[in-house]
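Attaching the record inline, Q. Sequence:
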Amino acid sequence: MGISAAKISSLVLKAFQKTGDLRTTVTFQRLTPGAYDPSTGAVAVTEVEYTVTNAVLTAISGMEFEWFPADRNTQKLLIAAEDLPVTPTTTDNVVIGGTTWEITRVKNVPGVSLYILYIMEP
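Structure, as predicted:
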């Protein structure tokens, strides 16, 4: 008998809540490109923000440096999937302490209980 995905998500959320002061609150920005406006020469972008209270910033490991460029300020952000109502993509951003970070890679774990976001300061 296995554990359901819902149970795993619930346990991951509880684990985040136990991290104490390691846990941080971030603003997740869902950016959706819209129509091109020829008068301004730009594409309209719709932005929807979500407050995520169960996130942890962590360093990038040595193995990840092989495929993730580290020429700018880079971090890894862990988010409990149950705390974010949308699936992150590389067109989205996160705001941490007033600084906007670009999501450059999204890694899911089995059961989609945790999002691992590789982020860079633009």
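The chain has a mean pLDDT of 84. The first strand starts at residue 23 and ends at 37.

More tomorrow.
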